[in-house]
Amino acid sequence: MTSVSLLGPGDEPIVLGVTTPATPVRVPTTRRYLMCPPEYFTVEYAINPWMDPTQPISTSLAVQQWTDLKDTYERLGHKVDLIEPQPGLPDMVFSANSGTVIDGQVLGSRFRAEQRAAEADHFRRWFLANGYTNVVMPERTNEAEGDFTWTGKYLLAGTGFRTDPLAHSEAQEVLGVPVISLQLVDPRYYHLDVALFVLADDLVAYYPEAFSPGSQRVLRRLFPDAVIATAEDAECLGLNAVSDGRHVVLPVEATHLAEEVAKRGFEPVFVDISELRKSGGGPKCCTMELRD
């Protein structure tokens, strides 16, 4: 029986949990991500409960935190591609909202908020310029990996605040994968990716209270061994995390969630996303996975 620890932001040791001989050995897989530098990041409108245009924003701090996130991915052995940010699109940094890619098939996005609508076409052009030939732009509103989460077997699809329920069947037709609809009920957790993330294979972490009672039952049936997050985990956007099958990149405040995933054999990797969180985003929001 051994404890799992790593260094926190001040280089102090943090004990995150205890593993036992029965704890699975987690194996990372190399991922490819698409990210957008937050060169024009600010909060000049409010389209979710996290956004307050009256509060001060530091674009330079957002750039520093984003760069640390990108460097973390590359240090872990992952490949990061970049898309050029565009003036007037401060939320373009949240690249996860602009495309869902499975087996090289791309389903683009259609934003609900007019302030973000132009982002979709910039990403469409990036896909076409970078060798993707199967690119479909949706007829129904969907905010891509914000509400579409690929488990390797199912596409979990959120609705309730942003993505049109009819976009779920459209995703199934375009991507050719089974889709499971989940209803979100708490406006703070307006996208699926701030209420649930995939750790590995058939294991997820999620915050039950973000979902309708029926969706909670679906999640319990599909993932009986899931990591159950607390309100505190959710409130720091701890579930807006990224796992490569071993390493779990998550906000530095999510210490309870980190301890829980460490007990399952994962290695938490903390990042500071406090400035980006002012727009309702975290590590996953900044990270579109390119599954070629």
UniProtKB/TrEMBL annotation:
SUPFAM superfamilies: Pentein. Gene3D superfamilies: L-arginine/glycine Amidinotransferase, Chain A. It holds the Pfam family DDAH_eukar. GO terms for biological process: L-arginine deiminase pathway. Transmembrane segments: none annotated. The keyword Hydrolase applies. Keywords: Hydrolase. This is N-dimethylarginine dimethylaminohydrolase. It comes from Saccharothrix variisporea. NCBIfam families: DiMArgaseDdahMtb. One of its GO terms (molecular function) is arginine deiminase activity.
